[in-house]
Amino acid sequence: MDSHQKFEEERLPSIDSFESTLTGSGISDEDYRHAQTVWHYFNLKNMGEYHDLYVKCDVLQLADVFENFRKLCQHYYGLDCVHLFTAPGLAWQSSLKMTDQPLELFTDINMHMFVEKGIREGISVITKRFSQANNKYLPNFDASKSIKHIIYLDCNNLYGASMVESLPHGGFEWISTDVTLDWIQSIPQDSSEGYIFEVDLKYPEELHDLHNDYPLAPEKMDIKFEDLSEFSKAVLNGMKYTPSTKLVPNLKDKRNYITYYKNLQFYLKHGLKLEKVHKILNFQQNPWLKKYIMFNTVQRKNSKSAFEKDFFKLMNNSVYGKTMENIRNRVDVQLVNDEKKAQKLVAAPTFKRFKTFDNELVGVERVKKCLTLDKPIYVGFVILEISKLIMYNFHYNVMKKEYGDKAKLLFTDTDSLTYEVETEDIYEDMSRHMDIYDTSDYPRDHFLFSESNKKKIECFKDELHSKPIFEFIGLRPKMYSIKSERGEKKTAKGVARSVVERNIRHEDYRRCREVLKSTREIQHRIQSENHKLKTVKVNKIALCAFDDKRYLLDDNVHTLAHGHYKI
Question: How many whole angstroms separate alpha carbon 385 and alpha carbon 166?
């Protein structure tokens, strides 16, 4: 429907006309027969009437879904969602109502800036760019070669697992930095008092090989051009390189590193050396959010419909985001249709920019005169720190403890870890640690199938549900392909999912890695410009083999963490 004249057409167009420019896909014969049935049943006269009926059905069904959403909110949380703007806002209000926990806000700007500086999102990195499995579960198993398994693990509700732990709620004060290493290591895990440290840490060279896959204490860094390997520079092939701030797990010494005391204890236990303590923020903590998180977890486990499962998952995941809300990102925009008022706003010292929508309407953006920092960001900070601790604990105290150098991390993306493991039978190994694995998605006839840990937070599940992985190819964070018995799992950040599914294959990732040449794809998207919607066609880079988060080696397979002594 790209012209008003088409609304006057008096018959249903052919099936070939029902192709979406956004997804590049058409409709099935069954869908087309349904469209014909609708046309005749409602005795429609033209495409305009068909369009109006479609929109009416769409809106009424959405209204029914939303009313069901309202009923769920009122039944489980005693709140009406129409009084709130967003799902995170609803989840946050629900958690406060259910837990009845007062949260003290910072009155010391230095405390707020201190915690804000330490906020780091999830880790996403490709550590080994290619791996091919070889084991008895594969059709092309070669017994003369070393046995390798590739397993893709995901942590159940990682942020939920972090939110059931003790979290800060008040009593913030600076304490003396005159503390001993023994005192730091002796702080109980379940202490009613928590601490955030600012420290200097040394990363000893003897740990570099052991920790190369998944370095401790990640930092936000700007990777400069001179930090890249010669191979990485060759991959750029003349393209302009612009450094940007990224969260990078690295092996460099840490200066003024801000971290939660449990993380610091873990880092010290695994070999990092404490050189200096700059600041210590002390506070009261308890697992005050646990009641809310466990309530949603139980409800999700007992849900019968996909809608309810997604609802309770959303109510857990979105509450975390509200604890991290950055007030600095808010804008002050005023819509003006009076010329004198517009001139006055533009002349003000707080003026930032303007946008003309039409001859009678202008939007003026101003710098906010005053920022009220009234969000408990300390909660979000600790949640993020604990989430990293959960992932580090699994890597170092489960996988590395079990396999040592025979387990190599291929990639991680916040709550997932994918390994290449040299072992006779990975599933036999898992059977010895069933307390940490959720195998409820395995086939019921599989010897590991169990529902004892179904949806249990902090348990790890096999994302391929016991189906063996043949091959992994990783190009850069959030751009990889896994070929398995179930087919191909492909990700390419920034590329429409429909384009990835329709146009990009596992072999394209292989070719991109081997030839070191980026690929482009055409995609369509709906774009709003001056509040007017339009469909645009974009020719953008789809696959790219350049990755600056790691020091790429000449074999185009292995990588080193930045700061490694071999660089």
Answer: 12
Q: Flag whether 322 is in a domain.
A: no
Domain that holds residue 169: 124-288+376-561
Three-state DSSP state, 30 = helix
102 touches 170 (CB < 8 A):
yes
Tokens of 74: 């009122």
Cβ atoms of 364 and 346 closer than 8 Å: yes
CA distance 292 to 258: 28
Contacts of 540 (CB under 8 A, 6+ apart): 494, 495, 520, 521, 523
Q: Which residue has the tokens 């791996």?
A: 131
Other CB atoms within a 10 A radius of the CB of residue 394 amount to: 18
Give CA–CA dist 540/518, Å, rounded: 10
Closest CA to 288 of 104, 103, 157, 115: 103
Q: Same domain, yes or no, for 462 and 397? A: yes
CB-based contact 356:362 (threshold 8 Å): yes
Do 161 and 155 touch, CB atoms closer than 8 A?
A: yes
Q: What is the pLDDT along the chain (567 residues), one digit of tens a residue?
A: 778 888 999 999 999 888 888 888 889 999 999 999 999 999 999 999 999 999 999 999 999 999 999 999 999 999 999 999 999 999 999 999 999 999 999 999 999 999 999 999 999 999 999 999 999 999 999 999 999 999 999 999 999 999 999 999 999 999 999 999 999 999 999 999 999 999 999 999 999 999 999 999 999 999 999 999 999 999 998 788 999 999 999 999 999 999 999 999 999 999 999 999 999 999 999 999 999 999 998 998 888 888 899 999 999 988 988 888 888 888 899 999 999 999 999 999 999 999 998 888 999 999 988 889 999 999 999 999 999 999 999 999 999 999 999 999 999 999 999 999 999 999 999 999 999 999 999 999 999 999 999 989 999 999 999 999 999 999 999 999 999 999 999 999 999 999 999 999 999 999 999 999 999 999 988 888 877 888 899 999 999 999 999 999 999 999 999 999 999
396 burial type by CB count under 10 A (0-12 exposed, 13-18 middle, 19+ buried): middle
Last residue of a domain, one of 33, 54, 70: 70
Q: Mutual orientation of helices 47-77 and 87-99 as an angle, nearest 10°?
A: 20
Q: Could you give the CA distance from residue 552 to residue 127 in angstroms, rounded to a whole number?
A: 9
Q: At what angle do helices 377-394 and 306-322 cross, to 10 degrees?
A: 120
Alpha-carbon distance of 85 to 78, in angstroms, equals 17
Same domain? 447 vs 518: yes
First to last CA, the chain: 58
Indicate whether 179 and 221 sit together in one domain.
yes
Domain count, the chain: 3
